[in-house]
Amino acid sequence: MMTIRRFAILTLFFGAFAPAAADAQIFMSPQEEKQLGTQEHPKIIAQFGGVYDDPEVSGYVAVVGGRLAGHSDNPGIGYTFTLLNSPVVNAFALPGGFVYITRGLMALANDEAELAGVLGHEIGHVTARHSAKRQGKGTVAGIGVLLGSVLTQVLTGSDLLAQGVQQLGGAAAQGYLASFSREQEYEADLIGVKVIARTGYAPDAQADFLQSLADYSTFEAERAGRKGEAKGTDWMATHPNTQDRVRRAMEAAGVAGAAAGAPTRREEYLKVIDGMIYGDDPSQGFVRGRVFAHPQLRFTFTVPEGFRMVNTDAAVIAVQTEGGSRIQFDVEPDKRNATYDPVTYIARVVGPKLGMQGAEAINVNGIPAATSAARVRTQNGQSVDVRLVAIQADSATMYRFLFISPPNLTSALAPGFQRTTYSFRRLAENELGNLKPHRLRIHTVRRGDTVQGLAAQMAVDDMKEETLRLLNAMRTNDEFRVGAKVKIVSE
Hints:
Elements: H1 30-47, H2 55-70, E1 80-84, E2 91-94, E3 98-102, H3 103-108, H4 112-127, H5 137-141, H6 143-155, H7 158-176, H8 182-199, H9 205-223, H10 230-233, H11 235-238, H12 242-253, H13 266-273, E4 277-278, E5 286-288, E6 291-294, E7 299-302, E8 307-311, E9 316-320, E10 326-331, H14 342-350, E11 360-364, E12 367-377, E13 383-394, E14 397-405, H15 407-423, E15 425-426, H16 429-432, E16 438-444, H17 451-456, H18 464-471, E17 485-490
Helix pairs in contact: 1-6, 2-4, 2-8, 4-8, 4-9, 6-7, 8-12, 9-12, 9-18
């Protein structure tokens, strides 16, 4: 929760970072593209959870990417393939040959050919120089600024109150990340399937993975209590008929027959990802049902029933599945402000931005804190109740809860919000050893194994069978075959 992934990544995409016109002119030379990518590369790593610290898995991605790059139309560009330590399903590219995927995406993919399909598509964007086809250099050069601006908006004023964290995150993601036109996506498909086929993979693996993406989108919508909304709220909605688009590209590229007999290298892929972290990394803290615990920062808290948490490196967001209320937990980014006592901090730093008058000193399990509340009119004319709690962990750390609720629900939610506040506490030494990340494990199906039996063993909070089927690209009525290797999630 303490490095900066931002809210602008909660999306599914094979995209880029700013709106583009299909017929836009290229304003940068290849040298300038490489310079820009080199400049933004460390910022992307910092903002997306860092590089996944497992040489075997990261090196594997680089090797597969290198094979594809060697069969691309511009192998001399000097590609850099980076595996990001993020559980979000994500892939994108910067100018100059910088290609990124997340370990969340690797968990969803089922073989090396599907991984190659994703990387090939991103190589297609780089080859076609889509990120450089903007209205001007300044648009592309603002990548780092765009990614860094969302949190500032959320923490300093009306954007949070007007739209809520979840909506703001979705809008930012669509605006910054999923912005290639249909023509550009098709062009990346066309280039990508050629590269994949030249390298010896089945090009239709890209279409298979797009189906997994669509299933993931539906799964996430259902978990969030928005069953049936996936097609209208995520990346897939702006890029319809993606599987058909890939197959059309395969026909146009003359590689439709390349799928026959081409290896998927599933065994090799599963061997590499066996043991990979699934979900939150220890450096980001863990969501376990309604409990959030951070083993490195050594604190925990619990949100009320009816709220579902999403952990980002910038904040922990809890969204009420019915009712629209939200909880945000984060840390004051300016350590100088954390030196104030909590009452003064609210009065001088945050309270005026939220329309709060005064603050009340409280004590949260032996830690000095303060709270204040206000009713605020949002940009769309609606009123919301906002309560801020500031908790001073030490002279350099001020934690913050922000509770947001419609006025008609505030009284009913107040006891739960109060319990969340006072559930915040430091973790005891003997608790730290029990906080371990979930990991992907590869299980060989034995006689007597059933989907329901293995699902019961899944170390996930809910939708165990659905998660098992999603990770293994299994349809509703599919069953396991004895001897098959499947992905499960374990402690």
